[in-house]
Write a structure and sequence with these properties.
It is built from 4 helices and 7 strands; from the N terminus they run βαβαββααβββ. The protein is an alpha/beta fold and about 140 residues long. It has a 7-stranded mixed sheet, with helices on one face. α1 packs across α2. The relative contact order is 0.25.
Length: about 140
């Protein structure tokens, strides 16, 4: 699946498209360069799910929790992790296997810990305020 976003006004529609594509998948792995808009897009996803919480980057807290009408959303930023052991210390399994949405920035830092059938979402800058968002299912043992 591929979505082209011409400006920030197109993020809501892109988020809705991605959620429809994901179906019952709830673990999203977000890759993209620094400043590509991962957190901004995650904010749109949370809004589409009906969350009224303020969405911000969990760079220092590692994980933020947001409420939405059907449960919880966990938003991770693993950029600062130095090893997968830190994710174990965080209790990642309780989050990843909770049945709640997990939006994970910098998932390559914990690649060996991905749950099965996660959705890989790549965000690529294609111009000023323009993004290409591609998504595919990553079967992972």
């Amino acid at each position: 699946m591929e979505i082209h976003v011409k400006n920030t006004g197109g993020l809501a529609a892109a988020a809705q498209q991605l959620l429809e594509f994901a179906g019952d998948k709830k673990v999203f792995l977000f890759e993209g360069d620094m400043g590509a808009g991962k957190t901004t897009f995650i904010k749109s996803l949370c809004e589409q799910l009906g969350s009224a919480d303020v969405v911000s980057s969990p760079t220092f807290s590692i994980v933020n929790e947001y409420d939405y009408p059907e449960g919880l959303i966990y938003h991770f930023d693993f950029y600062r992790l130095k090893s997968e052991a830190e994710a174990y210390d965080l209790g990642y399994e309780d989050y990843f296997y909770s049945g709640n949405y997990c939006f994970i920035e910098w998932p390559s830092k914990v690649e060996n810990l991905w749950p099965g059938n996660a959705l890989m979402v790549n965000i690529r800058v294609t111009g000023e305020n323009k993004r290409e968002i591609s998504a595919n299912l990553i079967p992972h043992p």
